[in-house]
Amino acid sequence: xxFPASAPRVFYGWIVVAAAFAVTFVGFGCAYTFSAFVPxxxxxxxxxxxxxxxxxxxxxxxxxxxxxVSGPLADRWGAQRLSMFGMLLVGAGLxxxxxxxxLSTVYAAYGLGVGLGIGCAxxxxxxxxQRWFVKRRxxxxxxxxxxxxxxxxxxxPLATSLIASMGWRGAYLALGCGAAVVGIGMSWFxxxxxxxxxxxxxxxxxxxxxxxxxTSGMLLREAVRSREFALLYAACLVCSFGVFVPFVHLVxxxxxxxxxxxxxxxxLGTIGVGSTLGRFFLGGLADRIGRQAFLLAMFAxxxxxxxxxxxxxxxxxxxxxxxxxxxxxxxxxxxxxxVVTDLFGGRQVGGIIGVLYTSVAVxxxxxxxxxxxxxxxxxxxTLPILASAAAAAVAAGIAALARRQPGAG
Length: 409
Prior knowledge:
Number of helices: 15
CATH topology: Growth Hormone, Chain: A
Number of strands: 0
CATH architecture: Up-down Bundle
Distance between the termini: 46 Å
Helix content: over 70%
Shape: globular
Strand content: under 5%
CATH class: Mainly Alpha
Number of domains: 1
């Protein structure tokens, strides 16, 4: 007597992708609501735009720089625990920010809570995804980080509505509770290595007797000494001085040009739409045309989009900029981990990505705050926007020098 073959189980790698999507959605979605809070924080604390911008810059510096610690820890201990702890910190930071009575307290609560929280979760979650895929690595990574794009689309308008109905304090408390519940719950599904589930990358059965957790590739100390890593680091460093300026200053820029608060928040959401499209669709395209060439195109595209921003004042023009910028920004974020894995292998990919993202941390710390202080002095965003475009163009040139055939598996 024969029985019908059982239906094939869902490849667990896609569950890991879904969990990483949730982590990036919650973490970055909450972080990128900051622009919606700028007017309230300025009003309540009688602060300049530059000083308020430091709050976001501090958080960004922490969540990109902490990967240098959380990445290697995830390689050793697994990504699940670090991601769960990170989401707890995000929720606690937002809740504490809701009780702040000075801007310095917001620096500590939001900056440290959100910054450290995303720093604990982001690189480990993405590093775990890379190990589960080879042929569709770009697509899978794009899906995972599309949570950032969807979060940017959904969360700023939600924050604006919460601020209108509950005040900025109530809005921060509500966001913090939601971040903790959703983020911790989904982080539980992250698995660090296909061997832990009895399979190999892409769902190919693991060889009989294969040792769990063994992955080919360079050691961290070997990778960071290579020419390719140095050039990749330089490109990300230069680009990141300008790439996060829109996330802090697009809403104030729109308000300065007599665009309403709700429409201005929609502009930030439009970056999220473009970013989601870039991460979801362009990651698969990169697998076909070559991931390193694709990375160069993303730098060049961000430079072109930022140049458009400098000449845009009306809502429709700014919406066009936001959509285009989001598309290329999303593609850039999606393709970085696969490029790193292509070049250096998956053995210590979490640590390598973590070190690479310290470059982004420096730019995130200095860029938005510098743009705010430039505005305070000149009462115009023209100079910081053009400087941001120039930085992305220089990054494209550096990325061109870094291209080579993958050699680390």
